Amino acid sequence: MSILVAGSIATDHLMSFPGKFADSLVVDQLDKLSVSFLVEDLEVRRGGCAANICFGLGNLGLRPVLVGAVGEDFAEYRAWLERHNVDCDSVHVSETKHTARFVCTNDTAHAQIASFYAGAMSESREIELKPIVDRVGAPDYVIIGPDDPQGMLRHTDECRQRGYPFLADPSQQLAFGDGDLIRPLIDGAEILFSNEYEASLITQKTGWTRDEVLSRVGSWVVTLGPDGVRIDRAGEESIVVRAVPEIEKVEPTGVGDAFRAGFLAALSWGLGHERAAQLGCLLAVYVVEQVGTQEYEISRAAFLARCGATYGDEAVADFEPHLQTIRV
Ligand SMILES: Nc1ncnc2c1ncn2[C@@H]1O[C@H](COP(=O)(O)OP(=O)(O)OP(=O)(O)O)[C@@H](O)[C@H]1O
Ligand SMILES: [Mg+2]
């Protein structure tokens, strides 16, 4: 049995300019704009939703299968993910395009000039899941995260046709997609993930009420930021799990992905939705406390201590046997 994680694979290139962009702009010459800023530092961060989720699963001792499209420049990132227990053998490598890249420069006034290059990501529509399943075994779950929209649709259709259980995680694509894209991405999902804002986008854009969405998915997991998470199921009472108190809030980028990794890990260990939400929250808080989405390390003892302090000894007892493989 296996877990397939489809979605974006990207790097963020972040620079800071020790001045103000506005001082270099001549307003009545903007049609001839040509500026270059001497920046102080360049930070390259590994990201992309599918890669982030895989990193979290790998850290918890699972061996997720990454499904997505990259460029020839992926070698170093691949080695990093493989060191963290991620199966990258089915990643599609484009012959012509680079891996998706976000390039961003900030100035001292928090103004930002940024570009997102989707690059090889558009080739995820060329990926078929069946050969991957033939290689790694029938999937327990296929999670379909934000990616090239055609690729997301193809993976979701294939899951429905072949009967692979799939989890819908359209996230950022909800802002761009219309109802015609979003409806087929959700319909028939075992689990739908969103945050609260995205939950409103889903009902607004699909034209489905909350109950209609619930009639089309097994469960709807709605993350509530520092307030934790709520899980809704048709005809059942919601399950609410509170977040793990942060020690220090550094940067929340990537919390949603870490949450999904924890949630999926608990499900694949055969635990229920409440435990899954708790493990999601536990993993997510590690990301809040770090700069970057793949920089946290889990120490088994500290992880279980935090778990006990927030969710009690029974939760610790349920997680402990599955965390034997954690290295640190
Ligand atoms: N400040 C915080 N302290 C502790 N836990 C947090 C905090 N913010 C988020 N979390 C945890 O992360 C989970 C996901 O957070 P959130 O709802 O903000 O996701 P998101 O909006 O999809 O985030 P993103 O897309 O930026 O990764 C929450 O359910 C919670 O467990
Ligand atoms: Mg999110």
UniProtKB/TrEMBL annotation:
UniProt entry tagged with the keyword Ribosomal protein: no
Gene Ontology MF, one: kinase activity
**Keywords for the protein's UniProt record, in alphabetical order:** Kinase, Transferase
Write down the Pfam families for this protein, in alphabetical order: PfkB
Under InterPro entries, the record lists: PfkB_Carbo_kinase, PfkB_dom, Ribokinase-like
Q: Which residues form the Carbohydrate kinase PfkB domain?
A: 32-295
Transmembrane regions listed in the UniProt entry: none
Q: Which residues form the signal peptide?
A: none
Keyword Kinase in record: yes
Name the SUPFAM superfamilies on file: Ribokinase-like (SSF53613)
Q: Which family does it belong to?
A: Belongs to the carbohydrate kinase PfkB family.
Name of the featured protein: Carbohydrate kinase family protein
> Which species is this UniProt entry from?
Nocardioides baculatus
